[in-house]
Amino acid sequence: MTFPVEFIVLSTTKFGESRMVIHSLSRELGRRGLLVSVGKKTPASLFLPLNVLEGEVTENPKSDLWSVKGLSAISPLQGIRGDIRKNTVTLFLSEVLFRALPEGAVEEGLYDWCLRSIFTLDEMDSDWSNFPIRFLLELSTALGFSPTFDDIAPFAGENIAELERLLSASFEESMLIPLSGARRSEISESLLRYIEFHAERPLRVRSLDVLREIYRV
Asked: Global pTM?
């Protein structure tokens, strides 16, 4: 059976000489690895983290690894791809999704929320430095944790006041809350521990170190 699927690229893994596994998130299939054949003329830019693609998926009755072909991009994400700092942020956000969601997980509404978040980041021209923090807070809600102040306080450390303010702020207000790079880094790490606790799985987000670097800028 073959059917069309729109999905978000989380990461890729080489699979032999001419194929790769796209670790994807879609509305219908949730978090799933999709096998795709690639050639010398296949642009690597097609598989950048958080790209939104569409293609034809073919089920494999003998394996959970289904194949996909006829790939094309839904949006060029010019606002992200033209900004090295936003590109770095997508590395972090995609890895968080990859590690927080087990293979085969289907969370109702998660895909559409992710899609809105990607397009929001793409369109923002300024005042988006707090976006990764807001993303982690909203991801907690999308995963069903619904963080409250009392729930998140044990993970907040010295940033309890800042997190309380972030929790009560609208999206627009949260983007304008003044935070140093060090504070953003600490809060992001606190929220990862919170998600890790409730997801009951170790995250080990390696790109957090990369995020710390751009927070210094």
From this structure: 0.94
Asked if 89 contacts 129 with a C-beta cutoff of 8 angstroms, the reply is: no
Q: Which of 33, 52, 73 is the last residue of a domain?
A: 73
- List the one residue out of 51, 61, 63, 62 whose CA is nearest residue 26: 51
Give the per-residue pLDDT at 183: 94
Q: How many of the other CB atoms lie within 10 Å of CB of 154?
A: 12
Q: What is the mean pLDDT of each run of 10 residues along the chain (217 residues)?
A: 96 92 97 93 93 95 89 96 94 97 91 98 95 97 90 94 96 96 94 95 91 77
- Structural domain including 163 reads 78-215
Query: For tokens 């609208």, what's the residue?
Result: 170
pLDDT at position 217 is 54
Which residue is associated with the tokens 């521990």? 193
Do 102 and 157 sit in the same domain of this protein?
Answer: yes
Q: Which residues of 170-186 are buried (b: 16+ CB within 10 A; e: fewer)?
A: eeeebbeeebeeebbbb
CATH of the domain at 52: 2.40.50.140
- Using alpha carbons only, what angle is made at residue 114 by residues 39 and 107, rounded to the nearest 5 degrees? 100
CB of 46 closer than 8 Å to CB of 25: no
Candidates 168, 100, 165, 104; CA nearest to 139 is 100
C-alpha distances in Å from residue 158, one per residue of 18, 39, 45, 69, 148: 49, 51, 40, 49, 17
